[in-house]
Amino acid sequence: MAKKGKADKKNKSGKKKDQLKEQVEALPLELGPAVAQAARSMRTALSHQLAAHGLYAGQDGVIQALAGEDGLTPGALAQKLGVKAPTMTRTIGRMEAQGFVERRAGAGDARLTQVHLTETGRASLAAINAAVDECNRIATKGLSGKEVRALVKLLATIDENLHA
Fold it and tell me: How far is CA 89 from CA 69, 80, 85, 114, in A?
């Protein structure tokens, strides 16, 4: 049997790339639905990861926001997370019942209600970070670090363009 040359090796590694290229080219060029579906899938996967720790969708964002700046008002939290105030009020109520947060009167103005993390809420940060890391690992399986960085950069550009 003859030895396989460089051309043969190139064809084998190139075959996988060619198949992937054909699959990508066969996809419709509808960016919005593709991004929306990927975001939905990512959020669903993260929700499953968080559920194992007693957290519901959206609660991770509240805990992370308060970890960065404890004592936000419900309105400030809603604005920071891009949700409506009534939604945030319900979320805070549920999280308070679960022991993740507590409401307190504002230090400078007792008429204001501020939301603070409890020890249970702070302890859940490690589980949230682990769930996010696992979700990212699953989502980027088969992508190189360079491809992931490029994807994140492209998505940030799209986001900037849409906010302009």
Answer: 18, 14, 6, 12
pLDDT digits 0-9 by tens, 116-133: 999 999 999 999 999 999
Residue 83's CATH number: 1.10.10.10
Q: How many CB atoms lie within 10 A of CB 149?
A: 11
CA distance 136 to 68: 21
Give a yes or no: residue 9 inside a domain: no
List CB contacts of 47: < 8 A, sequence separation 6 or more. 56, 57
Which of helix, strand or coil describes residue 5?
Answer: coil
Q: How far apart are CA 12 and CA 7, in angstroms?
A: 9
Q: How many CB atoms lie within 10 A of CB 120?
A: 15
